[in-house]
Amino acid sequence: AVLFCTWLLLGSSWGPGPPGIGAAPLLTADYVLDDADGLGREFDGIGAISGGGATSRLLVNYQEPYRSQILDYLFKPNFGASLHILKVEIGGDGQSTDGTEPSHMHYENDENYFRGYEWWLMKEAKKRNPQIKLIGLPWTFPAWIGKGENWPYDYPHITVYYIISWILGAKQYHDLDIDYIGIWNERAFNSKYIKLLRYTLDKHGLQQVRIIASDRLWEPISFVLLIDSELHEVVDVIGAHYPGTKTVPNALLTQKKLWASEDYSTFNDEVGAGCWARILNQNYVNGNMTSTIAWNLVASYYEELPFGRCGLMTAQEPWSGHYKVEAPIWITAHTTQFTQPGWSYLQVDGHLEGGGSFVALTDGLGNLTIIIETMTHNHSQCIRPPLPHFRVLPQRATFYLRGSFYLVKTLQVWHSRLDFESANSSLFEQLHPVKVWRGSFSLDLGVDEVYTLTTLKTGRKCSCPVPPPPQPFPSNYKDDFNIRNPPFSEAPNFADQTGVFEYFVNGSDPGDHVFTLRQVVVQRPITWVSDADQTISIIGNFQWVNLTVTCDIYIEKPLDGGVFIAGRVDNGGIYVRRTKGVFFWVYADGTYRVTGDIAGEEVLMKGLSGVRHNTWHTLTLNIQGNSASGLLNSYPLWENVTISKPSNGWAAIGTRSFEFAQFDNFHVE
């Protein structure tokens, strides 16, 4: 509540030093924080997403102590980001932005609750913060769910069974209690399915699992909730993506919890931090949203994939141990270290007279936390939606504490200032406490700043050891996949872009190929984006130009089966269908091809190879400058193929279609 606004010359007040003589007058305004007439909405927490997809892929391959340090920065209370919520993808074997994540049920008669890394990540989060809330959401589904159709709702009882199995598996095999479950990321919802999901959750004793819908836009879910009382009863949270801090009237009329269930998605430099600071406050101030969840948790995927470094921090070099605690981590801490889910917002307008915003929260037990942000337009633009122009000015804010807060005498102060000139930002620094005199205090606010003022004394900024310096991917890399009990189902550093490549024990081969890597998705999944028609897993350094790739391959599909090795692979993620490179294919019918793309439309060379299925062969691809050659079982098969583009890219392995195939003794140099 703004009592008055006037222009005054700067006098003495708490805050940064006064401007010099002749400085422009400072805009001043008063704000009242009072709980006497009740509180605002209940705060549900700040979180981040692992998945949607494969965004944590490289994190699991970090060696200790670096992996634990990264996890501490994300989840450990009063340490770094101190997240309240972890949202993970329920892997569905399909491409979901930066890769595929494996399903717990590749096939109808298949269950395995140890695939992928989301189980591990949820346990690591819980280990550090037992109170963290867990959310599961599917982006894609295995093909058997749709019985041949690219749609998960034709047989809702099957989809419900699949999702319930994931929730029960989390508890049975990992002792993880899932708190919230979503419907289908950024795709259509189905009322019949949601009602059946609630009924089946209750039937299995999972009443504590809440339902979020629909992880897309505010509409049409809000309107449907208003006209369908049965659906209204079973949906607990309306989750909207990238709402631009705004909500819609129908969403408010439902009286449901409103969340920005996916937001941010912005390059994690200072502008990304400004975006995050602004929406963390203004999602509530403008839109009544009581939770904001960032995509993504940690940028642990090859940076040249789509949306590189759009995580709260960066950890994309497990081979070197290097990681970077980016500014958004400390912006998160301004809220998360001094609030908890279950606190309540105060009923205040929240807009600052000179631009910017503030929120105030209480635990109802006398504690008070105020978070203020003064992000300017050009320094806080998120990736989406477009941001209308606004102005932010230096200003003095005077806060009057009323009600149960009148007796507060001192507030702890934490401060960040984002510097866009010298990149010398001050992040999450503790300043001298502010004295509250007769229920009021004043604060001089510059632009692009964040302040937290709180009665809590628990805040902490970790000072961990400096991580190792960055290093490029090893220029000579081998993997024989000879690991009897792998800690994860996927081989280190391979990033699946269509299909799923898993460690495999080849019981029929007592020789050199007992432990292999196998592509296991044999039907096109219910997709979220345009997966390729071929499977592919990438690895290495995107800047590689001259390279030799060698791999033992085993085609399992007779007649029209086939596999490839590749170099200079230039694309992945949501753009995987348009991937170019140098692809060396061999097929079960005894032929080979060299193509300039994964789709096989640009044929550079073809001929006979004599390769057959159910036999191991060794392929070698050598790319030097504008020329490529290929060997089969160490003998030249083709040579002097001219390569014009791409000029650089990753190495890769893959299959002609969704088919079983095995790979062994991979080597790239």
Automatic annotation (TrEMBL):
<comment type="similarity">
    <text>Belongs to the glycosyl hydrolase 59 family.</text>
</comment>
<keyword id="KW-0732">Signal</keyword>
<dbReference type="Pfam" id="PF17387">
    <property type="entry name" value="Glyco_hydro_59M"/>
</dbReference>
<dbReference type="Pfam" id="PF21708">
    <property type="entry name" value="Glyco_hydro_59_C"/>
</dbReference>
<dbReference type="InterPro" id="IPR049161">
    <property type="entry name" value="GH59_cat"/>
</dbReference>
<feature type="signal peptide">
    <location>
        <begin position="1"/>
        <end position="23"/>
    </location>
</feature>
<keyword id="KW-0326">Glycosidase</keyword>
<dbReference type="InterPro" id="IPR017853">
    <property type="entry name" value="GH"/>
</dbReference>
<feature type="active site" description="Proton donor/acceptor">
    <location>
        <position position="186"/>
    </location>
</feature>
<feature type="domain" description="Glycosyl hydrolase family 59 C-terminal lectin">
    <location>
        <begin position="496"/>
        <end position="669"/>
    </location>
</feature>
<dbReference type="GO" id="GO:0005764">
    <property type="term" value="C:lysosome"/>
</dbReference>
<keyword id="KW-0458">Lysosome</keyword>
<dbReference type="GO" id="GO:0006683">
    <property type="term" value="P:galactosylceramide catabolic process"/>
</dbReference>
<dbReference type="Pfam" id="PF02057">
    <property type="entry name" value="Glyco_hydro_59"/>
</dbReference>
<feature type="domain" description="Glycosyl hydrolase family 59 catalytic">
    <location>
        <begin position="43"/>
        <end position="337"/>
    </location>
</feature>
<feature type="domain" description="Glycosyl hydrolase family 59 central">
    <location>
        <begin position="345"/>
        <end position="459"/>
    </location>
</feature>
<protein>
    <recommendedName>
        <fullName>Galactocerebrosidase</fullName>
        <ecNumber>3.2.1.46</ecNumber>
    </recommendedName>
</protein>
<dbReference type="InterPro" id="IPR049162">
    <property type="entry name" value="GH59_C"/>
</dbReference>
<dbReference type="InterPro" id="IPR035394">
    <property type="entry name" value="Glyco_hydro_59_dom"/>
</dbReference>
<keyword id="KW-0442">Lipid degradation</keyword>
<keyword id="KW-0378">Hydrolase</keyword>
<dbReference type="GO" id="GO:0004336">
    <property type="term" value="F:galactosylceramidase activity"/>
</dbReference>
<feature type="active site" description="Nucleophile">
    <location>
        <position position="262"/>
    </location>
</feature>
<dbReference type="GO" id="GO:0016020">
    <property type="term" value="C:membrane"/>
</dbReference>
<keyword id="KW-0746">Sphingolipid metabolism</keyword>
<dbReference type="InterPro" id="IPR013785">
    <property type="entry name" value="Aldolase_TIM"/>
</dbReference>
<keyword id="KW-0443">Lipid metabolism</keyword>
<keyword id="KW-1015">Disulfide bond</keyword>
<keyword id="KW-0325">Glycoprotein</keyword>
<dbReference type="InterPro" id="IPR001286">
    <property type="entry name" value="Glyco_hydro_59"/>
</dbReference>
